[in-house]
Amino acid sequence: MQDYQLSKNELRETKPKRDEFKDIKRNSIVCVLDNLRNAYNIGIIIRTCEAFLVEKVFVCGSVDLIKSKKLLKSSRKTERWIKVETARDTSETIKKLKCLGYEIVAVELTKNATPYHELAKKEKIAFVFGSEIYGISNEVLLQCDKTICIPMFGMGNSLNVATSAGIVISNFIFKK
Fold first, then answer.
1. pTM tops 0.85, yes or no
2. DSSP helix/strand/coil, 63
3. Which residues have C-beta within 8 Å of that of residue 37, sequence separation ≥ 6?
4. Each residue of 112-150: pLDDT tens digit?
5. Closest CA to 172 of 47, 57, 54, 42
């Protein structure tokens, strides 16, 4: 049989109805965005989180970007289907998540970071992703329970933050 790309109607047949979607169980994962400055990146991360049924995305610091046309364009309207919360202070957000029992995991290139694929599956986890230029602030890094990184073998020093989020979240979701 010849393979083909599914049409929008065929894709809709595989999904729950819109009014049922709100009741679907979410994964106990949250993403904390520490002072991201690019609305496209924030939108793509929201879109990725919605695709993997992540519980919530916290946009910290750059709260004004949440209504940006660039964010809305890159999220492809998925922000309607996932909880997105804004906060001025990443540290306060992390404190609240710790009180709720989340393990806080920084995704950052540090001296003692563990490769992302070695992270053990947890019941409640919060991934922290940092600014495109500066990464995660030192203050926030100190609050994290552990740090993971994506090993890189090329000459570049970093990956795009939205790409990193996709790799880490996908790996975690499918981890046994």
1. yes
2. helix
3. 62, 65, 131, 132, 133
4. 999 999 999 999 999 999 998 899 999 999 999 999 999
5. 54
Nearest to 36 by CA among 121, 99, 107: 107
Residue linked to tokens 């880490």: 168
Tell me phi and psi for residue 15, to 5 degrees: -110, 160
How far, rounded to the nearest angstrom, does the alpha carbon of residue 107 sit from its chain's CA centroid?
10
User: What letter does residue 123 receive in the DSSP assignment?
Assistant: S
Q: Which CATH class is domain 25-151+162-174?
A: alpha beta
The domain spans of the chain are: 25-151+162-174
Half-sphere exposure of 107 (CA within 13 A, CB side): 31
Torsion sign, CA atoms 29, 69, 22, 8: negative
Q: In the prediction, which pLDDT does 16 show?
A: 80
Q: Are 133 and 104 in contact (CB under 8 A)?
A: no
Residue 143: other Cβ atoms inside 10 A = 18
| DSSP state for residue 135 in the 8-state scheme | B
Residue 54: name the closest of 26, 79, 20 by CA: 26
